[in-house]
UniProtKB/TrEMBL annotation:
Xref: SMART domains: IG (SM00409), IGc2 (SM00408)
CDD domains, A to Z: Ig
Cellular component GO terms held in the UniProt record: external side of plasma membrane
SUPFAM superfamilies named in the record: Immunoglobulin
Stretch forming the signal peptide: none
Pfam families tied to this protein: Ig_2 (PF13895), Ig_3 (PF13927), Ig_C17orf99 (PF17736)
Protein's name in the database: Ig-like domain-containing protein
PANTHER family given in the database record: IMMUNOGLOBULIN FC RECEPTOR, PLATELET ENDOTHELIAL CELL ADHESION MOLECULE-LIKE ISOFORM X1
Gene Ontology biological process terms, A to Z: cell surface receptor signaling pathway; cell-cell adhesion via plasma-membrane adhesion molecules; immune response
GO molecular function, one term: transmembrane signaling receptor activity
Encoding gene, per UniProt annotation: PECAM1
Alphabetical keyword list: Disulfide bond, Glycoprotein, Membrane, Signal, Transmembrane, Transmembrane helix
């Protein structure tokens, strides 16, 4: 529609705008805003802004309206090629499918063009939109229903012209099951009841039918997906009610008989379009002047309103009343079909000419060597056009330039080979090249170069606890380096295993078993991602090694023969292995330990104060670390009687013996005295 303003006609308006902008402290751009496509120079920066008056604002608005009206009056010529309507995903879909109605208009124009699209369904307008781009118009039918069934057509209007597509039939199958509702289930004979029928999600004109005992009772047509009515039931008893519906479609109408036939004759217009191309023949080479002419042959009388259009694809090259010409400097991309169209009223005739333009030289190809490069490595870039027209130029006439991230690396006289020095810290980037000859330039495809990063010194670590004699995992990892990276695990001078990490989330993990804690120092790993450079080696594997416990033993202090009542007794549990060690002491017959402690030493003790006879029994201990648990041999403790008790017993025994001896002596002496007294009395008696 609007290609550009005839700015020469608006000198006066521009002057008035600038005068108004001076008073406001703005340029004309400040007045017109971004909606105008006219670019004017900015006012000098020393202008001082002033407060605008209402009168000045009104004047500026009127001037803007006049200027935009003048701009819109300039139309760009245009030529219709075709209008096509398609239904996606297909012309026949099931209900609930999202359907896209796409209208595509092929229009050749030389500039800005306003297009008005109108979508029809069964000759009724359902959607209209105006756009200014060449994009297709999209009309969406979300969750299509049977009511969307019909014939769709698209019409496109451009200034002074319109063209319609052919009709496409959309068929939507499948209806939702209706739902019947009744306000009461039990009622009296002759009473009115409210009955409803609903078709969920449906639309359009619908006829609802109500049935009693499978016999049609009532029908009603509505433009909604539900209906309610009052029904009276006079027959007593149980009755079965249901409903159904029908969606009214135009295609379901009853057709009439065909009418009578009338023969008509269409007279041909004896004018034809003629297209000519110079130079003639097939040897048109890039750089040649290409002249294309579009004219009319035949009787031009009574051909008022005739116009001719010269186009290539969607691009309108030229137009005129009876002739259109176009000249250009031939390039390879201009090869293709040129079209000459004449238009008289609604009649359009076309003539085409296929033009083949030979390349002066081919599009350059940019290559690099080596194909994989690491940081600070030298890169050789080669830019070459493999083919050229030998009767016009030689290979030395083609000059090359190489670019990195749109910055020139080489001059225009470059011979096509460029070496990126290895001292460049970062050679990564997007490279391209350009070939020039006889004022024709061609660019190569972009060549992305990502310099690989050399692998850094790897770190070797153990995963989890390392226990002598049990398998564990060793991980090798480098913080920097482009994949793939090959990792190798070594034990002293022997290769244990190797693996290649291909993905960022993968790791180099090796299974290992050591038989002695000192073996850990023998492991190293190396990494490599560039076969031309030596591998980098890690430090020695350094981690805590847990030695399983062994040789548990329980000893008693004092000696078992010297454990006596009242003294202290120490139960000492000792093992060999890695601390920390948890020690537990048990007395046979008790499930719970007597004492538990954790020590960083290889032994620990349990003290029992004031040993008594009740402490006699069998004892053992258990030792636990991260590797295993061991139990000592049992030790039987027999608590001896205290020494003072033994002395007391001996003293008591001696005292008892002494008392018994004294008693015996006294008794003996008593009996002896009695005998002596009796003898003396006997003697005395005898004497007397």
């Amino acid at each position: 529609m609007v290609r550009g303003c005839r700015w020469k006609r608006e000198k006066g308006l521009e002057k008035q705008y600038r005068e108004a902008g001076t008073k406001w402290g703005h340029g004309i751009e400040g007045v017109m805003g971004h909606s105008s496509r006219i670019s004017l120079r900015q006012p000098p920066p020393m202008w001082e802004p002033q407060q605008p008056s209402v009168r000045m604002v009104t004047r500026l608005l009127l001037l803007t309206s006049a200027l935009l009206s003048t701009c819109q009056a300039v139309e760009s010529p245009a030529l219709f090629t075709s209008v096509t309507l398609t239904l996606e995903p297909s012309n026949a879909v099931s209900q609930g499918t999202n359907v896209t109605v796409r209208c595509q208009a092929l229009v050749s124009s030389s500039g800005f063009l306003n297009r008005k699209y109108t979508i029809y369904k069964d000759n009724t307008v359902v959607y209209t939109e105006s756009i200014t781009t060449a994009e297709d118009l999209i009309y969406s039918l979300r969750m299509a229903r049977v009511a969307n069934t019909g014939k769709y057509k698209c019409k496109v209007n451009i200034p002074g012209k319109e063209l319609s597509s052919s009709s496409e039939k959309l068929t939507v199958t499948g209806l939702q099951t209706p739902v019947l509702s009744v306000d009461k289930r039990v009622f009296s004979e002759g009473e009115e009841v409210t009955v409803g029928c609903k078709a969920p999600g449906e639309s359009g004109a619908i006829v609802f039918y109500f049935y009693k005992d499978s016999k049609e009772l009532y029908e009603e047509r509505v433009d909604a997906n539900h209906v309610e009515t009052r029904l009276r039931f006079n027959n007593a008893g149980d009755h079965r009610l249901h409903c159904d519906y029908r969606v009214i479609l135009l295609t379901d109408s009853v057709p009439s008989n065909a009418s009578n036939n009338v023969v008509v004759t269409v007279k041909e217009l004896f004018i034809t379009p003629v297209i000519s191309v110079r130079p003639h023949g097939s040897m048109i080479i890039e750089g040649d002047n290409l002249d294309i002419s579009c004219s009319v042959s035949g009787n031009l009388q009574n051909s008022s309103g005739l116009k001719v259009f010269l186009s290539k694809g969607p691009t309108l090259l030229s137009s005129g009343q009876s002739k259109a010409n176009h000249s250009m400097r031939a390039l390879a991309e201009h090869s293709g079909e040129f079209q000459c169209s004449l238009e008289v009223g609604n009649v359009v005739k076309r003539a085409t000419e296929n033009v083949r333009i030979t390349e002066l030289f081919s599009q350059p190809v940019l290559t690099m060597y080596p194909t994989e490069v690491f940081e600070r490595e030298k890169i050789t870039l080669t830019c070459k056009s493999t083919n050229y027209s030998s009767d016009r130029i030689s290979s030395s006439d083609v000059k090359y330039s190489i670019y990195k991230d749109n910055y020139t690396l080489t001059p225009g006289s470059f011979n096509g080979i460029y070496v990126v020095p290895g001292v460049v810290p970062n050679s990564s980037g997007i490279y391209s090249c350009k070939a020039d000859a006889r004022m024709i330039s061609k660019y190569s495809a972009k060549l992305p170069v990502q310099a690989k990063v050399l692998v850094s010194k790897p770190e070797i670590t153990a995963i989890g606890r390392v226990i002598v004699g049990k398998p564990f995992q060793v991980r090798c990892h480098s913080d920097r380096g482009s994949l793939p990276i090959e990792y190798t695990l070594w034990k002293k001078y022997s290769e244990v295993n190797s693996t290649t990490v291909q993905q960022p989330h993968h790791q180099a993990i090796f299974p290992v078993t050591v038989q002695h804690y000192s073996d850990m120092q023998d492991y190293k790993c190396e990494a490599r991602n560039n076969p031309k450079i030596d591998t980098v080696v890690s430090n020695k594997l350094n981690t805590t090694v847990i030695v399983p416990l062994s040789n548990p033993g329980l000893s008693v202090v004092p000696d078992l023969l010297e454990v006596t009542e009242g003294n202290e007794m120490y139960l000492i549990c000792g093992v060999e292995g890695s601390p920390p060690v948890t020690f537990k002491w048990y007395r046979r017959g008790n499930v719970q330990p007597l004492f538990t402690t954790t020590s960083t030493q290889s032994s620990a003790s349990h003290r029992i104060k004031g040993v008594g006879n009740e402490h006699s029994g069998t004892y053992y201990c258990e030792a636990i670390n991260y590797a295993n648990m061991v139990r000592s041999q049992p030790v039987t403790v027999d608590v001896k009687m205290a020494t003072w008790k033994k002395g007391l017993i001996v003293a008591c025994c001696l005292l008892v013996v002494a008392l018994l001896a004294l008693a015996c002596v006294l008794r003996y002496n008593s009996k002896r005295g009695k005998r002596e007294n009796a003898a003396e009395l006997s003697v005395r008696s005898a004497t007397l």
